[in-house]
């Protein structure tokens, strides 16, 4: 769920690494009980292509300088937000993905934020976004977390003053202060964020 006005731009990022951009007023307004409109009626999506992330951008958002991308294989990429100002109806490549990879999430950053990457094995890598050099739209990104046999399940942008909520596949959850996670380097295995057991499930 995102909060926006009719004049904000909404960016739609898909599992295949494409991005679409439409104005807020181009999304029809419905009542609370209505089913809404299938996204294929709004966006030129390919078969089996899913929208993974929504972001709102506006001219008043002065704190956002970059977009950080995270993939299932633990790759991260940082791109200047100005590269997403002109997008045609057919969309644009936002990140180049390997054949067996898919885009997980996209986050807005200020240029000096902390990136948190979580793995299904219950580990968390925490590093400054400056460890990820700025790349163009067509770049594939660099390793953000060492995964072994696990997969990356998500990313978050946070500061040490924040808390983060971790949820498992079997419905367990816990809240932890971000400062409790030791800062690591980009590409490390990270630190233990959760003790994964048969009872609680993976992250």
Could you outline the blueprint of secondary structure elements for this entry?
Blueprint: E1 9-14, E2 18-23, E3 51-57, E4 66-71, E5 75-80, E6 92-93, E7 103-109, E8 114-119, E9 123-128, E10 142-143, E11 152-158, E12 163-167, E13 173-177, E14 191-192
Antiparallel strand pairs: 1-2, 1-3, 2-6, 4-5, 4-7, 5-10, 8-9, 8-11, 9-14, 12-13
Briefly say what this structure is:
By secondary structure, the protein is mainly beta. Helices cover 0% and strands 36% of the residues. It is built from no helices and 14 strands.
Account of the protein in words:
- This protein has a four-stranded antiparallel β-sheet, with no helix packed on it. A four-stranded antiparallel β-sheet has the order 7-4-5-10, with no helix packed on it. A four-stranded antiparallel β-sheet has the order 11-8-9-14, with no helix packed on it.
- The mean pLDDT is 92.
- 0% of the residues lie in helices and 36% in strands.
- Strand 1 (9-14) and strand 2 form a beta hairpin.
- It has no helices and 14 strands.
- By secondary structure, it is an all-beta fold.
- It starts with 8 loop residues before the first strand and ends in an 11-residue tail after the last strand.
The coarse silhouette is globular
Order of helices and strands: EEEEEEEEEEEEEE
Distance between the termini: 22 Å
Structural class: mainly beta
Low-confidence stretches: none
Radius of gyration: 17 Å
Strand order of the largest sheet: 3-1-2-6
Q: How many β strands by DSSP?
A: 14
- Let me know the average pLDDT: 92
Helix content: under 10%
Given the structure, what is the number of helices?
0
- Tell me the fraction of residues in β-strands, as a range: 35-45%
């Amino acid at each position: 769920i995102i909060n926006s006005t009719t004049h904000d731009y909404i960016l739609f990022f898909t599992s295949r690494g494409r991005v679409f951009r439409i104005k807020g007023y181009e999304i029809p307004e419905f009542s609370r009980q209505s089913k809404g409109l299938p996204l294929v009626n709004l966006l030129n999506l390919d078969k089996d292509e899913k929208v993974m992330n929504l972001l709102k951008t506006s001219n008043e958002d002065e704190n956002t300088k970059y977009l950080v991308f995270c993939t299932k294989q633990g790759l991260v990429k940082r791109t200047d937000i100005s590269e997403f100002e002109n997008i045609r109806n057919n969309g644009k490549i936002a990140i180049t993905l390997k054949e067996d990879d898919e885009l997980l999430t996209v986050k807005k950053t200020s240029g000096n934020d902390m990136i948190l990457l979580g793995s299904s094995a219950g580990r968390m890598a925490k590093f400054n976004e400056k460890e990820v050099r700025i790349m163009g739209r067509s770049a594939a990104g660099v390793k953000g977390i060492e995964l072994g046999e696990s997969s990356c399940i998500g990313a978050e942008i946070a500061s040490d003053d924040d808390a983060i909520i971790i949820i498992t596949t079997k419905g367990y959850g816990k809240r932890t202060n971000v400062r409790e996670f030791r800062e690591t380097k980009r590409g490390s295995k990270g630190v233990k964020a959760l003790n994964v057991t048969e009872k609680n499930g993976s992250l």
